[in-house]
Amino acid sequence: MPITTTSPRGRAFLRGHEGNPLTCYLDPVKVPTIGTGFTMRSRAVKASLARLGITKLVPGKTKITAAQSDAILLDVLAEEFEPAAVKGSPADRKQNQMDAATSVVFNLGTGAMGWQWAKLWRSGSLRAAAEYLGSHYNTAAGKKLPGLVRRRKEEADMFLNGVYAGTKAVKEATPVAPDTPDDDVKEAQQILSAKGFDPGAIDGWMGDKTAAAVKEYQKAHPHLTADGVLGPATLSQLRRDASAVKEVVAKGASSSVGAGALAFAAGLPWGWIAAGVAIAVVGYVVYRNRDVIQRWWNTRRGNEVVV
């Protein structure tokens, strides 16, 4: 019979990459997320959360239990993502291919089964499909993310060779440095250092000093539990923290230039109009990044947040 469901190993792989934060957080592109990458963008997630009485995901406030997260994962895979993987793949798919496809659509959306990698799969070009998957679809908001680069490569290896990598989305302190630096840890160390938290050497090792810096950052952030563990929620907030100032500057400048040009062409007092538009846009961007500002204020004041 054709394979139509994700194996336990496939679900473990998926959760290894997605993590399982039980308190809602904002992902790098500001989408409220909880559990194993659950967002309200998925109709199946919305239905499962509604059965728990949850109709809105509020960062730092909405919480679920580990058992509820497990149940939601099974629901959404069966209702939305596994059918998409089956529909967009050949009937003779193997279990490792099904597991890889489920991971892809869970992360990128069901439309991913219509993309080039899946077209190559359907044409019978398995190696070409794996190579394409392993080298594409690894950016968020226009930026290539180390975690997505690694995930696509591991999905490609699973798809082609049946290798289930042991990636862990959660990084805890270890007494010995890893043989290969962890790109996510290194990225976090760089951001922590830039924000005034001392993680020690920028070496990709989640040692005691980096864990302590992570914990100090978490204590000040309104959406994070201060446990010293670098997981998807904390890494997402660090990335947002790093990009917030750039967003204010870029959007404020671009909006003022555009408004000024239009006002000038219409013979209006372009300077005042441009300034007004820039203030409004900056205000909007500041509102969207209010948790980052709250983190900064708490850090300055030495306030500790309880989530």
Structure write-up:
There is one protein chain. The chain is mostly helical. The protein has two domains: 8-161, Orthogonal Bundle (Lysozyme), CATH 1.10.530.40; 183-301, no CATH class. 58% of the residues lie in helices and 3% in strands. The chain has twelve helices and four strands. A two-stranded antiparallel ribbon has the order 1-2. The chain has a two-stranded antiparallel sheet with strand order 3-4. Helix 3 (66-87) packs across helix 4 and helix 8 packs across helix 10 (232-265). The longest helix is centred in the C-terminal third of the chain and has 34 residues, at 232-265. It is globular. The chain starts with 7 loop residues before the first helix and ends in a 6-residue tail after the last helix. Mean pLDDT is 88; it is low at 247-265. Keywords: Antimicrobial, Bacteriolytic enzyme, Glycosidase, Host cytoplasm, Hydrolase, Membrane, Transmembrane, Transmembrane helix.
